[in-house]
Amino acid sequence: MGIATAPFADEAVAQARLLGMPGARVLYIPHPVQLLSAGDLAGRADAVFPDVLAALTAGPVAGYATAPATASVAPWPRGDELR
Fold this sequence. Notes:
Elements: E1 2-5, H1 9-18, E2 26-29, H2 38-57
Parallel strand pairs: 1-2
């Protein structure tokens, strides 16, 4: 699930497609967030938390395959492996 502000809706959908998750849910929150104080940002997060929880606990999106129960993950390369 992704969270984005409305002006970035197209980018959120495109990123989900590029990451192989075309049916991923995206929750849109009020814009802007970058200029909010820490208290205002926390208040905004508290306000949308019920929507986030609902989206995370809802059933699967129709036509979207879920990820396998197990997956292999390669470790992130250390600095010396990047050369």
